[in-house]
Specification:
The complex is a heterotrimer of chains A (about 120), B (about 290) and C (about 220).
Chain A lengths: L2 H10 L11 H5 L10 H9 L10 H4 L5 H5 L6 H13 L19 H11 L2
Chain B lengths: L3 E6 L2 H5 L2 H14 L1 E5 L21 H17 L3 E4 L2 H16 L1 H10 L11 E4 H8 L1 H7 L8 E4 L24 H8 L3 E2 L13 H4 L1 H17 L4 E4 L2 H12 L9 E3 H8 L8 H11 L6
Parallel strand pairs in B: 1-2, 1-3, 3-4, 5-6, 5-7, 7-8
Helix pairs in contact in B: 2-12, 4-5, 7-8, 10-11
Chain C lengths: L1 E5 L2 E5 L5 H7 L19 E6 L6 E4 L9 E5 L19 H7 L11 H5 L6 H10 L2 H7 L8 H5 L6 H15 L5 H11 L4 H9 L2 H9 L6
Helix pairs in contact in C: 4-5, 5-7
The chains are: A mainly alpha (about 120), B alpha/beta (about 290), C alpha+beta (about 220).
């Protein structure tokens, strides 16, 4: 197993090699218009050890809605794999995806700020 | 005439941003004989559960709330926690399941919170709709004294009530074809409107950083409900409600559909105070032909 | 006698001394990390471990007695960027506090803050009280805070708790507490010039006369 696949498997608890590229997850995903690569394509990149997947916007556009995980015929938690890709970047020293103080939180409810903080900061 | 006492976990946004969600629930519960006992010193649930297997820290907010619930529950003789906010429900349900299925994680967490008693995962986390379902929607129908006949309501599920389906136990109904909200709507006398975007994501936390994504999603959801001639969209979640509200703002008047919480309609139907904005309550009463609530 | 380690270097000191006294006993002179010497200013925050124990502790050097095998380091300053706020434009609501300090929403409920507090304040409980919407609770819990910064140093969510609490107390004090009538009246008297003559007389008095006046002042029993 290559380094990237091993790391993603460790963090997500999912065996990335289980994916056989059926595309069910991408078909159900509602945010694909905005993504650089589709969810199932991102998993292929991980399987091949291609670290460019960490530079795509795909894990950051993911909204953790879990449609992908529900649809996967292999029972993979695809959302967890996306989370692992996010975590790999977030855990890098000095990596900042979201500066909470720079967000205009004038009327945002706490629930939104907390969710964004949990997903985009470590 | 209290027939049932259960523990209650409010959630931060319910209390602070959408107090009408909580207040209408208290009013409805009074009519139904349910006493909601708030968990003392509850902590923020964390909103989105940690999906990383090695990050136990993010479970702590839920666990501390569980410990306090456990102690209070032993005092009043219940192990049921009822939750209104669908995001809080999702997190707390999942953390509880993880702690039940992974004894190592449970031990890790219990060792860490050495300033509180250990958590024994025997609590039952339940969404308010499940409570109503188990009590029986037919029984609910009998208690309704102001059936909302003629009101077309589009029940919107969002994500958190239905997904993920593993570990088992999180969805409050079949994630591919849920009917629980439709059954609820029928039991209060209104007409549920089926619309294809009823279980699509509203965009979740993107409202903070990339609001154009939530705008795109919510416009589709509202548009779908509108094209099915819905009078109202029923929302179970403060975040969905906020996002849909922002979506409504970006549409012009005749494309908008007002969003209310399911307990507000429940309170109205039971003859209790629904804490609805005046213009929406007037709209509803005009449709069903009734007097203003007390 | 006890053996203490000041930034790794071993010294033998009487075991009845406080950490602060022990540091001076072995010959150091404080230019930082020393203030009121009475447990109130928050200058002498000290982190320490004791031999054979992995647990990290925090206390005030002027209050804590040394232990045999104690390893210490001090925190003379806590880097904290204080955002600007305008009390006149704010309401006494916890939402306002969260608006100024959105990082509060990162609180994990880990409780290391409360474990670090030398004043035994329930720090995590206070932050969560603010999340729950309970301003009054939060204010009452933090009355004893001396802004030492130990909690903020330990916090994984990078919250500067003492700044958060200060804003909460100021909002509450401005809008919710009953104003002290006698204070308002006295300020009015001063602004009307009631005490101007007395003050200018004192300003013109020389030091020796002032000392006499001070010795003969009326002392309330």
């Amino acid at each position: 197993m290559n380094e990237l696949a091993k790391r993603v498997t460790e963090i997500s608890g999912q065996n990335v090699y289980s994916c056989y590229q059926c595309g069910n997850c991408s078909a159900g995903c509602m945010f694909t218009d905005e993504m650089d690569v589709l969810p199932h394509q991102a998993i292929t990149l991980v399987q091949n050890g291609d670290e460019s997947v960490l530079e795509t916007n795909t894990p950051w556009i993911c909204a953790s809605c879990f449609v992908c995980s529900v649809r996967c015929p292999r029972g993979l938690d695809v959302a967890a794999i996306m989370e692992a890709l996010r975590e790999i970047k977030i855990r890098e020293r000095g990596f900042i995806k979201l500066d909470l103080r720079k967000v205009d939180i004038e009327k945002l409810p706490q629930i939104a700020i907390t969710a964004a903080a949990q997903k985009f900061t470590w | 005439m209290i027939t049932m006492e259960v523990l209650y976990y409010p959630g931060c946004s319910l209390r602070n941003t959408y107090p009408e969600f909580e207040k209408s629930t208290y009013e409805a519960c009074r009519k139904l004989g349910i006493e909601l006992v708030e968990i003392p010193e509850w902590s923020c649930c964390g909103v989105v559960p940690s999906l990383a297997t090695d990050n136990v820290m993010r479970h702590l907010g839920a666990v501390r709330s569980f410990v306090n619930a456990q102690e209070k529950g032993r005092e009043i003789g219940t192990n049921v926690i009822v939750i209104l906010c669908s995001m809080c429900y999702n997190v707390l349900k999942r953390v509880n399941l993880i702690l039940k299925e992974e004894p190592d994680t449970l031990e890790n967490v219990n060792n860490f919170i050495d300033d509180q008693p250990n958590y024994v995962p025997e609590l039952r986390v339940m969404h308010f709709l499940t409570l109503l379902k188990e009590a029986g929607f037919e029984n609910l129908r009998e208690k309704v004294n102001k059936p909302l006949r003629g009101l077309k309501v589009a029940p919107y599920y969002g994500c958190a009530l239905l997904r993920p389906d593993r570990p088992e136990g999180v969805p409050i109904d079949n994630p591919d074809n849920p009917v629980i909200l439709e059954s609820f709507v029928k039991s209060i006398g209104a007409e549920p409107v089926h619309f294809p975007f009823r279980a699509e994501c509203c965009g979740n936390y993107h409202i903070v950083f990339e609001p154009r994504i939530t705008e795109m999603r919510t416009k589709k959801i509202i548009g779908s409900a509108k094209s099915e001639r819905a009078d109202l969209i029923l929302s179970p979640c403060p975040l969905c409600t906020y996002n849909l509200g922002r979506g409504n703002e970006s549409l012009d008047k005749n494309g908008q559909v007002p969003v209310v919480f399911f307990t507000q309609l429940l309170a109205l139907a039971l003859g209790a105070k629904p804490y609805l904005p005046t213009e929406i309550e007037d709209q509803i009463l005009k449709k069903i032909g009734g007097k203003k609530s007390d | 006698m006890a053996t203490i380690y000041i930034m790794g270097k071993a010294y033998k000191v009487p075991n009845t001394l406080t950490i602060m006294k022990a540091i001076e006993y072995v010959g150091y002179r404080f230019v930082r990390s020393c203030g009121c010497r009475g447990g109130f200013c928050g200058a002498c925050t000290t982190f320490y471990r004791v031999k054979n124990d992995y647990k990290l502790h925090v206390d005030l050097a002027c209050q804590k007695r040394v232990e045999d095998g104690i390893y210490i380091v001090q925190l003379p300053f806590m880097p904290a960027e204080k955002p600007r706020w305008d009390l006149d434009k704010m309401k006494p609501a916890t939402d306002e506090v969260i608006r100024v300090f959105p990082e509060i929403t990162r609180c994990l409920s880990c409780n290391v803050c409360a474990q670090a507090c030398p004043q035994d304040i329930e720090v995590m409980r206070t932050i969560q009280a603010l999340r729950r919407g309970d301003l009054e609770d939060a204010v009452n819990l933090t009355f004893d805070c001396i802004s030492c910064g130990a909690c903020s140093m330990r916090c994984p969510a990078e919250i500067t708790h003492y700044q958060v609490f200060q804003l909460a107390r100021r909002l509450y004090g401005k809008y919710e507490t009953i104003p002290a009538k006698h204070l308002i009246e006295r300020v009015k008297e001063i602004e009307e010039g009631k005490f101007d003559d007395e003050v200018s007389k004192l300003m013109d008095t020389n030091v020796e006369e002032l000392k006499e006046l001070y010795k003969k002042r009326e002392i309330e029993k």
